[in-house]
Amino acid sequence: MFFEKVKKALRSSEAYDNFLRCLHIFNQEVISRAELVQLVIPFLGKFPELFTWFKNFLGYRESFHGESSHTESLPKERATEGIAMEIDYASCKRLGSSYRALPKSYQQPKCTGRTPLCREVLNDTWVSFPSWSEDSTFVSSKKTQYEEHIYRCEDERFELDVVLEANLSTIRALEAVQRKISRMSAEEQLRFKMDNTLGGSSEVIHRKAIQRIYGDKANDIIDGLKKNPAVSVPIVLKRLKMKEDEWRDAQRGFNKIWRDQNEKYYLKSLDHQGINFKQNDTKVLRSKTLLNEIEMLYDDRQERASEETATLLVTGPHLTQTYEDSQILEDAAALIIHHVKRQVGIQKEDKYKIKQIIHHFIPDLLFARRGELSDVEEEEEEEEEEEDMEMDSEGPKKHNGLPGSSPSKSKLLFSNTAAQKLRGTDEAYSLLFVNNYWYIFLRLHHILCTRLLRIYGQAEKQIEEDAREREWEREVLGFKREKNENPAIQLKMKEPLDVDVEDYYSVFLEMVRNLLDGNMEPIQYEDSLREMFTIHAYIAFTMDKLIQSIVRQLQHLVTDDVCARVTDLYLSESANKSSGGPLSTQTSRATAEGSYQRKAEQLMTDENCFKLMFVKSRGSVSLAVELLDTEEDNSDEPAEAERWSDYVGRYLNSDSASPELREHLSQTPVFLPR
């Protein structure tokens, strides 16, 4: 019957469970009878009949002197805490996300020390209702492992500070008592007793400080301090001071450990994207992922076209990307070639072809300046005679389906004079039909250029910020701060990276080379990047993996037979002006480009065929990618298209105008094309 009444009175299953836990630990003889009574006061204190019955059942008798009366008084002062715990704050009125209003039925505890001003200004309505990060379902808001290290250091530092301050407060209180005793006579010292505050203003702080030192004997020490202060105070005070010195020494040792940990994990704790980025980027850079992406776009368009029966949705690019800065192409090419040169598994001739693709073929497609091949040419000249002798003795050879691909002749493999002429044109385009290997390579190459550009842009921002800071120091403070005046150096903390802000980008490129060569550990590489580019460094964490993937695709481009024929087809069509030109003359090449497309589709019948269009406009180059449907049978169309293309060519060439005039009119036409 008693437990049913308690359950009805508490009106909360959680409070009732906590009440039963108190009884359980009493049955296990963990706490005494008096301690059990103190524990249940928050639950039964507001129900006098139940509380009285419970004490009578336990055989508990209240005493009005000694320690029992003292320990009994503490819970009485806090009896209202149990009521506060029963309030459902989630249903209370809200103020922002962290405060709740107490219900009007809540009975405020009495405070006898309040003045009229206190009643006017102090808050008795709103209480703090924190929401912990662990309670959030938003994963990114949770602390990382490095933040946990930082917070753990702060918790340990705070805990030690609390212990030291409590110990110091007790020392000061007992020193004041000792000075007071020293001014007393012998009879006054015998009569002098201390209360529960032990000469201070708190009954808890000094008691805990003594318990922390004496452990199980603390109650005896406290009794001695209260009954015979003249004898016990000097002894306890000496012990407290010894512990004070010991803990201060320990604190100095801990400070070094905490400082090292903070310096080690500080920049990592700010980086919330690095860990997830490295995990996800490994999947993003896979060939299968890049192919699945555009195949899904293709399937979505086909489904929409079949549902809406709209012809406009069937054509056009599935994917569009932008090359914003052509200067980045040189940095990307330098990193790729740096890694290619150190690959022992790639043949010398293949390396030279890769260099032509990177330094000549790609810049031509993107209307950029070609790279230099002088170092390779010098190598070829040294062995030219030996290669010629081998060619004469063995006859012309084929390499990957390309006749006579010796180093001396391979220099002409990727020559495209038509594309070079378009570099000076304001608006132009290049058309290229490729297979899977070429598509994956160009996607990875664009990702590399994009990330290099982001790092370069961040470096430029930091240069501007550093310039503004130095300008402010010169104008406001009247001096220029030197390197040795850095606050980190003056505080003997970890010295900053000995690199000027202006050199951040060049140092970053050198770090990538060292990482590719194995001369730099990945952890050291990431830490150096964080120190230079702070929270923006994560984008470059997988730069080595990206370059390695690009080099693998380049190997396919120079060794795969279909890739070689795709390249040859593009170069031959470029000579016929079927692979791009000025944007203003695009319509006049529609027939020839259609013929080029059909040839490419026939060449890549067993794999995907991609239509790539590089468009130069307003200072930037965009890449439009379209996955073509090669399953339709158009076997009779190529011959007809070729005849039509020849007819159009003969018709245009019959014009009596000079070639220079025809080229000028094609770039800026003043009439509609036929």
Automatic annotation (TrEMBL):
<feature type="domain" description="Histone deacetylase interacting">
    <location>
        <begin position="91"/>
        <end position="191"/>
    </location>
</feature>
<protein>
    <submittedName>
        <fullName>Paired amphipathic helix protein Sin3a-like</fullName>
    </submittedName>
</protein>
<feature type="compositionally biased region" description="Acidic residues">
    <location>
        <begin position="374"/>
        <end position="393"/>
    </location>
</feature>
<dbReference type="Pfam" id="PF16879">
    <property type="entry name" value="Sin3a_C"/>
</dbReference>
<dbReference type="InterPro" id="IPR013194">
    <property type="entry name" value="HDAC_interact_dom"/>
</dbReference>
<keyword id="KW-0539">Nucleus</keyword>
<feature type="compositionally biased region" description="Polar residues">
    <location>
        <begin position="575"/>
        <end position="590"/>
    </location>
</feature>
<dbReference type="InterPro" id="IPR036600">
    <property type="entry name" value="PAH_sf"/>
</dbReference>
<dbReference type="InterPro" id="IPR031693">
    <property type="entry name" value="Sin3_C"/>
</dbReference>
<dbReference type="Pfam" id="PF08295">
    <property type="entry name" value="Sin3_corepress"/>
</dbReference>
<dbReference type="GO" id="GO:0003714">
    <property type="term" value="F:transcription corepressor activity"/>
</dbReference>
<feature type="region of interest" description="Disordered">
    <location>
        <begin position="575"/>
        <end position="594"/>
    </location>
</feature>
<dbReference type="InterPro" id="IPR039774">
    <property type="entry name" value="Sin3-like"/>
</dbReference>
<feature type="region of interest" description="Disordered">
    <location>
        <begin position="373"/>
        <end position="410"/>
    </location>
</feature>
<dbReference type="InterPro" id="IPR003822">
    <property type="entry name" value="PAH"/>
</dbReference>
<dbReference type="GO" id="GO:0070822">
    <property type="term" value="C:Sin3-type complex"/>
</dbReference>
<feature type="compositionally biased region" description="Low complexity">
    <location>
        <begin position="401"/>
        <end position="410"/>
    </location>
</feature>
<dbReference type="Pfam" id="PF02671">
    <property type="entry name" value="PAH"/>
</dbReference>
<dbReference type="GO" id="GO:0000122">
    <property type="term" value="P:negative regulation of transcription by RNA polymerase II"/>
</dbReference>
